[in-house]
Amino acid sequence: MSSIPDAEALYTGLLAGARALLRPETKLVGITSGGAWLVERLQKDLGLAGAPGVISSAMHRDDFARRGLSASAQTSLPFDVNGTDVLLLDDVLYTGRTIRAVLNELFDFGRPACVRLAVLVDRGGRELPVAADFAAAKLTLPNTQLLALARADDGSFSLKVEESK
Questions:
Q1: Number of neighbours of residue 3 by Cβ within 10 angstroms
Q2: What are phi and psi of 105, to 5 degrees?
Q3: Which alpha helices (DSSP H) does the chain contain, by range?
């Protein structure tokens, strides 16, 4: 297995990438749970007013019957989605299925003008035609492994690899 990059160093890259994608009307939306952690910190570090959005893929997942409703945070979009420039943030882009589910959830709230995607890590392995507008890193892992963002009590990030169940 290749070495796992430092999540704090990747966050610095993500901050720069998100800053480059910002437009005056952009609203940040993090995908639960890793993306929600990232968006919370990015909103502050970018000096953006208001609260960022958090979105869950749970209700639109194609494996909902098996997984059920997650205990993680549910969708909270503290702005009108209609006509909004949305920058989605997530920790790891893999198959694209979570992004598909999140887009369905987002469109339940309205029709954004534009939706772009920034991720901490793109690990390849796409099953759907989804691409990030910005990825802080690209990493290849066997499909038997999961890559996830962890957040310490002090708010610092790390990446962890686990064998899939």
A1: 6
A2: -65, -45
A3: 7-21, 34-45, 64-67, 97-108
**Residue 152: CA atoms inside 13 Å, Cβ hemisphere, count?**
8
Give the whole-angstrom CA distance, residue 106 versus residue 146: 25
Question: 120 by DSSP, 3-state: which?
Answer: strand
Looking up tokens 């598909």 gives 100
pTM for the predicted model, two decimal places: 0.92
Q: Which contacts (CB < 8 Å, 24+ apart) does range 74-79 have? A: 74/32, 75/105, 75/109, 77/29, 77/53, 77/106, 77/109, 78/50, 78/51, 78/53, 79/27, 79/50, 79/53
Reduce the DSSP state of residue 141 to 3 states and report it: coil
In a structure prediction context, what are the per-residue pLDDT tens digits for the chain, which is 165 residues long?
458 999 999 999 999 999 999 999 999 999 998 999 999 999 999 999 999 999 998 888 666 455 455 555 689 999 999 999 999 999 999 999 999 999 999 999 999 999 999 999 999 999 999 999 999 999 999 999 999 999 999 999 999 999 987
